[in-house]
Amino acid sequence: MPAPIEDYALLSDCRTAALVSREGSIDWLCLPRFDSASIFGAILGDPTHGCWILRPRDRSATAQRHYLPDTFILVTRWECADGVAEVHEFLPMTDDRTDVVRRVIGITGNVAFTTELRMHFDYARALPWVRQVGTPEEPAVSAIAGPDAVIIRGIALTASDHRHTADFTVSADETRDLVLTWHPSHESDPVPLDVEAAIARTRSWWQGWASPIAHEGPHRDTVVRSLLVLRALTNRDTGGIVAAPTTSLPEQFGGSRNWDYRFVWLRDAALTLEALITHGFLEQVHHWRRWLLRAVAGEPAEVQIMYGIAGERDLTERELTSLPGYDGAAPVRVGNGAVEQYQGDVLGEVLVALEAARIAGLDETEFSWPLQRALLERVIAGMERQDNGIWEIRGPLRWFTHSRVMMWAALDRGVRAVREHGLAGNADRWEQMRERLRAEIDERGVHADGYFVQHYDTDEVDASLLTLPQVGYCAADDPRMLRTVQQMEHTLMRDGLLMRYRTSSGVDGLDGGEHPFLACSFWLVEQYAASGRIDDATALMGRLVALVNDVGLLSEEYDVDKGRQVGNMPQAFSHLTLVRAADALGGHSGRAADRH
Q1: Tens-place pLDDT, residues 176-215
Q2: What average pLDDT does this structure show over 228-249?
Q3: Interatomic CA distance for residues 190 and 405, integer angstroms
Q4: To the nearest 5 percent, what fractions of the chain are helix, strand and coil?
Q5: 89-123 in b/e burial notation, b at 16+ Cβ within 10 A?
Q6: pLDDT score at 594
Q7: Could you give the CA distance from residue 511 to residue 488 in angstroms, rounded to a whole number?
Q8: 140 forms bridges with which residues in the sheet?
Q9: How many CB atoms lie within 10 A of CB 205?
Q10: DSSP string, 299-319
Q11: pLDDT (tens digit, 9 = 90+) per residue, 329-371?
C-alpha cells in the first residue's frame, strides 16, 4: 500500500516535480517535465512500479521533516539508536540539465543507511537497459529505456531482480551525495553535478523569489509556502502553470474519479495569477500572458479550456493498465478528456485576471489587448450555448449560473478596459451583452426562495456561487448571497467543510461520490469575512490551515471520516484559495477590492 497522500513532500525545479514520502521513498517522478512519463510510479501501485528509497537501515528510526526556509530543499532528520543523520534532497535550479540530489549528512554517531532504486520507465511499461559505467572510485550506473536515460552517481549499486541496492554508513560531519541525472538517451552522459554549487544556487533562487512576499495578516508561513507551491507548479521555461504535478490520485479511495492534472487549465492558471498579482509577482503574469498568446495562436475562436505545458493542444485521455492505481483506485488516466469540453466560465476568469494585472501596473503590449478583444468576441459567440461548467460535468450540458456570471464578468472587464483604461474597443456593444446576461441571471439563476442556483433547471446550490461577489456581480451581503450561503450550509456541509455540489443529484454523470473540496471551504472563509462573519471566517480558516501536512502542502479534497487528504497533490487550486482566504482575513478581498 502506498503512503498516505498527506505523507508526501514536493521537490520541484519548476520543470518537473518529485513526491517523497515520510519513509524516504521517491514514489513519483516524471522526467524531464511534469507531464512526461514516470520513471518512479509507486504512488500509483507499489515499489515494483518504480521508486527510490533512501533511509536508515534501523526500521525504528524516526523522522522529522522541513524545508530550508522559503525553498523546496527538503531536510529529513533521522534519529536512530546509533546516531542522527539528515537527508537534504532537491531538484537543482540549473539552466540545462535535470537532476535529483539526495545528500546524506552525519550529525552524531554512526548511522547505517540503505538505498534501493527500482527504475521502471514509461509509466512502468519499460524496464531499462542498465550498465555499470563508473569506476571503483567514482561509481555510476546508467539506465536507458527508449528516448530516456538516467545516470546515478555517488554510490556503488548492486543489481538483483530489477532492483539496485546499496548500504553505507555516515559518521558525524561526513557527507555522501547521491545524484540521479536525466538526459536524452541518444546523448552522452552529462558531466557530474557540482553539488555544493547546486545547493547554493537552488537555495538562492527560491529565497530570492520569495523575498518580496509581504503578508502581514494571519497564517503568514502557510501563505508563503502556498505561494511557493504556485511558483513550483509554474514551468520556468514556458510560463505554463499546471494544476498539480500528479495524475490519478483518487477523489474517492477505491473509486474511479481519477484524473490527470499535469496540464494548464486556463481557469486555474488565471486564478493562480490573481493570487500572485496580489502579492506583487507581475513578471510571472507577463510570462503567462505570453504563454497564452502562443497557446491560442491565430484562432481565438478555437480556444481550448486547457493546454499542455508549452501550449500543446492534443491532450487525448487514455487509461493505463501498467499502473494499478493508488491503493487500487482505477483506472489510471493520462491526458484529460475535459479538453474537449465547452466551459463558459473560463474566459471570464482569464479576463478578470488580466484586468487585475492591468490595475496592478502591467502594461498592455501590441498583442495582449487585441488578444483580449478576440476572447471577448469568443465569449459573445458562446452566449447561446449550454456548457459543462467549472466542475467539468460529464453529464448533460446545462445553463450553469456560475458560467453565466463569469461571462458577465468578462464583458464587464471589457467595458472597463475601454472606459477606465482608455483601450480601444466596442464598449457599447459589450455593455449591451453584459446587461442582457445580468437580466437573464437575475431572472433564471435565482430560486423563488431568493438564493442563486447551480443551474437554471434545479433548486440545488453549488459552491462555485461563492465567487459571485469576488467578481463584483453582487455584494457579499446581498440578500441573495446570504440565502445562498444558508442553503450551502444546509445541503453541502460535511462535518464543517464544504462539498462542491451534491453528487447524489446526478448532475455530473459519474459514479460514486467525493469528499469536501478544500478550495470551496476557502471560498467560504472569504465570503464569511466579506459579509461580516469574522468569527466564523477565523474559525473555519483555522481548521483548514490545520489540515496542511507537515511541510505545508494540501491536496484537492479532504476525507473527514478518515482524516485523510484526497486527490492530486499538491493542488494549485487549494493553495491559491488559501492565499485569497488569508488575504480576506487580513483586510484584503482580491477581486472584490479591484471591483469596488
Answers
A1: 999 999 999 999 999 999 999 999 999 999 999 999 998 8
A2: 97
A3: 52
A4: 35, 25, 40
A5: bbbbbbeeebbbbbbbbbbebebbbebbbbbbbbb
A6: 45
A7: 22
A8: 153
A9: 18
A10: -GGG--SEE-TT-------EE
A11: 999 999 999 999 999 999 999 999 999 999 999 999 888 999 9
3-state secondary structure of 414: helix
Write out the three cell numbers for 179: 545524484
Between helix 534-545 and helix 572-585 the angle, nearest 10°, is: 140
Q: Which residues contact 352 (CB under 8 A, 6 or more apart)?
A: 270, 274, 406, 409, 410, 413, 471, 591
Q: Which residues contact 234 (CB under 8 A, 6 or more apart)?
A: 14, 240, 241, 242, 272, 284, 287, 288
CA distance 195 to 175: 11
**Residue 546 grid coordinates:** 490545520
Residues 6 or more apart in contact with residue 263 via CB below 8 angstroms:
35, 242, 243, 306, 307, 308, 309, 315, 336, 339
Q: What is the pTM of this model?
A: 0.96
Cis peptide before 128 (omega within 30 of 0): no
Cα–Cα distance measured from residue 423 to residue 114, given in angstroms and rounded to the nearest whole number:
63
Compute the distance between CA of residue 260 and CA of residue 246 in angstroms, rounded to an integer.
Answer: 7
Task: Record the cell numbers describing residue 320, joined without a space.
Answer: 493505463
Distances, alpha carbon 397 to alpha carbons 31, 338, 348, 400, 507, in Å: 37, 13, 19, 9, 9
Contact between residue 509 and residue 392 where contact means Cβ atoms under 8 Å apart: no
Q: Indicate the pairing of strand 51-56 with strand 62-67.
A: unpaired
